Structure to design on (209 residues):
């Protein structure tokens, strides 16, 4: 009976994966032709380089995940971290970017982390990832300053606002995940709002505490 249950579970998993792949194919059906045309024009060396760099990115991301996860679950392995990175990438494509976080939290919870720990870990990775993108884009904008200002000079103020917003969001996420003092500040704010609204949100705030 146990063997039959395992087989049935594997069958359901395979069906689920096939459904997701079908959704991906359907979603990108109009883009498949142009993508294949451009791939035909791309040299095998370039395609191979892209694949190698992509794999390298996932390996590094997986190692970072493992380093962070080991603080909560010492038995979490390097292989689990790399698998988590690939797992998230699959759902990032399948859900057009919106499901990667949920997939990461689910996977980490399945391998010994609580949902709160998994959420905090992923949020830190997300914050640093977005911040690194901003840093590298700013660096290469500066390197190509003449070209960028000549073609995109009208958008410099918007870029500055975007960089500033990225720093604020990153700082907020890091404080939310790591700072007990920031948490106490939030609870004081919640208490203030609760008193002003005559305990309207008290049940919600008590659950947070």
């Amino acid at each position: 009976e146990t063997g039959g249950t395992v087989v049935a579970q594997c069958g359901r998993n395979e069906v689920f994966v096939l459904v997701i792949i079908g959704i991906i194919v359907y979603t990108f059906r109009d883009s498949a032709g142009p993508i294949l045309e451009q791939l035909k024009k791309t040299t095998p060396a370039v395609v191979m380089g892209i694949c190698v760099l992509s794999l390298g990115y996932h390996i590094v991301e997986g190692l970072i995940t493992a380093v962070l996860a080991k603080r909560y679950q010492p038995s979490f392995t390097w292989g689990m971290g790399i698998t988590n990175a690939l797992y998230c990438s699959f759902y990032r494509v399948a859900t057009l970017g919106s499901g990667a976080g949920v997939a990461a939290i689910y996977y980490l919870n399945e391998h010994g982390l609580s949902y709160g720990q998994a959420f905090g870990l992923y949020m830190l990775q997300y914050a640093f990832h977005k911040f690194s993108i901003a840093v590298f884009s700013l660096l290469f904008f500066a390197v190509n300053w003449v070209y960028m200002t000549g073609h995109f000079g009208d958008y410099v103020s918007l870029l500055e606002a975007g960089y500033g917003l990225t720093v604020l969001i990153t700082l907020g996420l890091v404080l939310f995940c790591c700072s007990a003092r920031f948490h106490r500040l939030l609870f004081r704010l919640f208490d203030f709002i609760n008193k002003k609204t005559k305990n309207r949100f008290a049940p919600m705030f008590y659950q947070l505490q």
In short: The mean pLDDT is 83. The chain has ten helices and no strands. The first helix runs from residue 2 to 27. The CA atoms of residues 137 and 163 lie 10 Å apart.
